Amino acid sequence: MLRKSVLALAIAQPTLVGLTACSTSAQIITDTRLLQKITQASDESLFDASSPLLTQGAFEQAAARLYTTASLSEANSLLYYLRAFSYFGPVDELDDYSFALLTSGLSNLASTEVFVASARLQEQFAVTLYRYYANNEQASALARLSPLLDNQFIQLAKSASDAEHDYALWETLRAYGLLLNVARKDSDGESIS
Fold first, then answer.
1. How far is CA 192 from CA 13, 22, 80, 185, in A?
2. Per-10-residue mean pLDDT for the chain, 193 residues long?
3. 10 CB-contact burial (10 Å; exposed 0-12 / middle 13-18 / buried 19+)
4. What's 52's DSSP letter?
5. Which of 47, 129, 147, 186 lies most in the core, judged by the most C-beta atoms within 10 Å?
6. Burial class (CB in 10 A: 0-12, 13-18, 19+), 28
7. DSSP 145-180
């Protein structure tokens, strides 16, 4: 039944999001030691509010690394770190530069073969969108990432039904729901230029 509902949503989906935005790419000096700590950290240490990895600098390193990674394992670790950061990191300290890095990293990652072939990365991508972009301040960045979520949704709706694809599909639908709910509650929002 879920699959039929998903396919029905696929038909209506192009009307949900039809925005585009200019691309922004930001540069950062890579700290390979810090990135290694992030990608090798245990889940428990990432989801600990006292983790020394939950800093704006570490966030920016992880976001920037998404732009260049071609490794499934590294991309998954980076996205999982970003998930943990959204719960326990100083999200309020992130600035336009931080979000430019994240948006560029996510945009580039979503265009790679490793991303297209991995339901787990697609699940993490959807979660990252609703954890970081459900606000007026990031509306322009979300407009740039929305077509990628649309493509992901279409691909997942056509995929085989198994636990990995179903979780990715669930988080993709959840991203739409949460993002649209925020838009509904704040319908005046900020204009996108």
1. 21, 11, 29, 17
2. 43 36 57 96 94 97 96 97 97 96 97 96 97 92 95 95 96 94 68 47
3. middle
4. T
5. 129
6. middle
7. HHHHHHHHHHHHHTS--SHHHHHHHHHHHHHHHHHH
